[in-house]
Amino acid sequence: MALPGTPLRKRRKIMPILEVGVLVALLLVPLLTNDFHTIIASRMLLLAILAISFDLCWGYSGIMTFGQALFFGMAGYVSALLANKAGFVQIWGIVPVSMAVGLVSAFLISWFLLLGRRTPTIIFVALGTLTASYAAERLVAGWQWIGAANGISVWDFLKVGPYEIEPGPTFYYIILGFLIACYLASRWIVRSQFGLVLAGMRQNEERLAFFGYRVQRFKALVFSFAGMITGLAGGLYAFHEGFIGPGNLGIVQSTYAVLYGLFGGVGTLLGPVLGVGAIEMIAFNLSDIDELKPYWPVVLGAIMLVVVTYRPTGIMGFLISTRERIGTFGLIRDAWRDRPKPDDGGSGGTA
Amino acid sequence: MDDAIKLIFDVAAFASIMVLVVSGLAVIASLMGIFNLGHGEFVLLGAYTVFLFREWGLPIWLGMMVAPLVVGAFGAGVERTVIRRLYAQPVIAMLATYAIGLIIREIVRGLIGGKYYAIEEPLSGAFQMGGISFSVWRTVIICATVATMVGAWMFLTRSRTGLQIRGALENAALARASGVSTARLYALTFAMGAALAGLAGALMVPLFSLSADLGVRFLVQAFLSVMLGGIGTFSGPVVGGAMIGSMVPGFQWLREIPGVAEQVSPVVAEVLVFVTALIIVKFWPNGLISAGRK
To answer: Distance of CA B218 to CAs A3, A16, B156, B184, Å?
Structure first.
């Protein structure tokens, strides 16, 4: 049995070190760099939430989503419209509304694509999400009332009570807080008994179905949750960037979500965050070279090709073992911790 | 009445393009179980070849003849270098084709910029029949499609290789056990599918203008066609392609009804096609052809 215990305790655990390391690094960013770089880093954190949501779908539940940006962009549009048309910029309103938009739209899509009489094939879901994202982009780009192809500029700042939050260190820490919340919530989900079902689905979906699990409902739940956190990121993104456009809900942004996830390493949650960091930092440094700029997406495509063909575990594959990537799950761990043994020195803190 | 015939003719021209695109996608998907997410970009590549020939001052019709060969060769190269390693993992193979599509799309975008290019028809003008004028080029498209489809059907049902392909489709393991090299068949099929996409791209470029995002639109429509028609048969995807291909201009034409044009913009009409198709798929998940058979 691969229960966490003596054999595992001897192994050095790398995941917690990585998590703490990344957290400390992220906390230090505004202190060590100037405002300009902090603003760019804030944007990356928002994209990291998008990437985590892709990982939840693809890495943990086998939903190949090529339209994750749909929820990102829709929430962005709704909060931009709230600011511009209704003059409402309070964060306590914007955040729940964005999350609700993401949740509801993701639920509708998953209801349509996943919860049918027949089990949907992976390709049906993949192209269904792609179609939804593409159609939304086309619709928005042709709709004058919401700015058509030019998108919407948001001139107002997000507010907490009477205080305006300009992009900068304060906004950075607020976003970081949301990212940590999303990360911990996702981590809790995939490490719980619910996550064990998801892991079983990855191994053998049919067998899980024969056990009596309604596999598609589990997928729909994860998809809706992922849509919710994406919506949160999108709503904040509109304010942080001061702009939201058709590109943010279309295939371009969706493709980026896929890239971040695959490059960082799916099925790890932390991998996508690293993926965003790596890809966006390279992009930022390359953006000074004008000759390279048009071909940067080509490089991204090549990276994606190499990763999926040769290195499906992404960056995280270099850092942690498969065993640690799969990890342990909720109740078993608790049962192990509470096992009737006198010499148990509270060793339950695994994963 | 004349208008109706003209409309049917125009719709048939658009449907023909879609049939070509979809048959290429479906032949790969049904034989290898790999849904080529870069198929739209293969179409784009065919269109771009024609554009290149025009830029070089060569005749456009020559470009249209060469385009299927170029794209077919490209497809063979992709199969040889990437897809071949991934037959055991179809899902990973799909991600790889998506990446390949992204690479092609962005290279073309880099080469032509964000612009739209109109390419003139190699055979312009119209001919009269029964008092109605028909565009020559659209007639060529319809004839070329019918010829290709008949050729493909003959190839699959009459030739020895076609028999092997059908055998591999039915039971790949048994085909291998009988001494048929499925690897060779897969390579051939992938190249053929790519060539069909290239042909479609080359023929349609005078009707649509060339832009980097052309491929995505065709991928989405081809996907809906395959879903509508059902996979695994020759006729299913062809019928699905014809349906989607005629729904797209058909829905645009519905805007001609007085009072509708103000309410429904062209984009909305396009999206309505997607919605309609998805709803049909939702209720007939196995596709229309297999649904009709049961």
So the answer is: 50, 45, 25, 28
ipTM of the complex: 0.80
Q: Is residue A131 part of a domain?
A: yes
Q: Does A295 touch chain B (CB under 8 A)?
A: yes
Query: For residues A93 and A95, what is the distance between their CA atoms, to the nearest angstrom?
Result: 6
Whole-number pLDDT of residue A350: 43
CATH number, domain containing residue A49: 1.10.3470
> CA angle, corner B152, sides to B150 and B156, nearest 5?
115
Which pTM was predicted? 0.84
Instruction: Using the structure block, give the residue that is written with the tokens 């640690």.
Output: A324
Residue A349's pLDDT is what? 43
Number of H helices, E strands in chain A: 17, 4
Residue B291 has pLDDT above 50, yes or no: no
The domain containing residue A85 runs over which residues?
A: 6-334
Query: B153 in contact with A at a CB cutoff of 8 Å?
Result: no
Nearest to A307 by CA among A275, A268, A273: A275
Across the interface, which of A120, A127, A139 has its CB nearest the CB of B268? A139
User: b/e string for A221-258 if b means 16 or more Cβ within 10 A?
Assistant: bbbbbbbbbbbbbbbbbbbbbbbbbbbbbbbbbbbbbb
The residue that leads in pLDDT, B102 or A339, is B102
Measured CA to CA, the distance from residue B20 to residue B57 in angstroms comes to: 27
